[in-house]
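PROTEIN DESIGN WORKSHEET
SECTION A - STRUCTURE
LENGTH: 90
TOKENS:
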């Protein structure tokens, strides 16, 4: 269960989305949590054929989130990223 406004921060470096030790709250992000990936060299990779729901996503400039085509990331609120391209205009 989440408290309103919980932020699950990526602890830095390269790693897999489903590795709970890489998240500040000690678990993989939940649907009621904001997710922040802020380090300029952070690379977070979601496993193939994986599905996750989060409340808000903030990927800072220089950080990278890799969501394979076989995976699904649902963001219920906003995506905050300097160069986000959801391909909706293509």
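SECTION B - SEQUENCE
RESIDUE ASSIGNMENT:
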């Amino acid at each position: 269960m989440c408290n309103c406004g919980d932020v699950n921060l990526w602890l830095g470096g390269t790693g897999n989305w489903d590795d709970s030790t890489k998240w500040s709250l000690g678990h993989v992000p939940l649907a009621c949590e904001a997710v922040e990936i802020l380090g300029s060299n952070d690379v977070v990779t979601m496993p193939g054929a994986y599905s996750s729901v989060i409340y808000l996503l903030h990927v800072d400039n220089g950080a990278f989130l890799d969501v394979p085509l076989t995976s699904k990331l649902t963001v219920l609120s906003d995506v905050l990223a300097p160069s986000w391209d959801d391909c909706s205009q293509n």
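SECTION C - NOTES
The chain has one domain: 7-80.
Confidence is low (pLDDT under 50) at residues 84-90.
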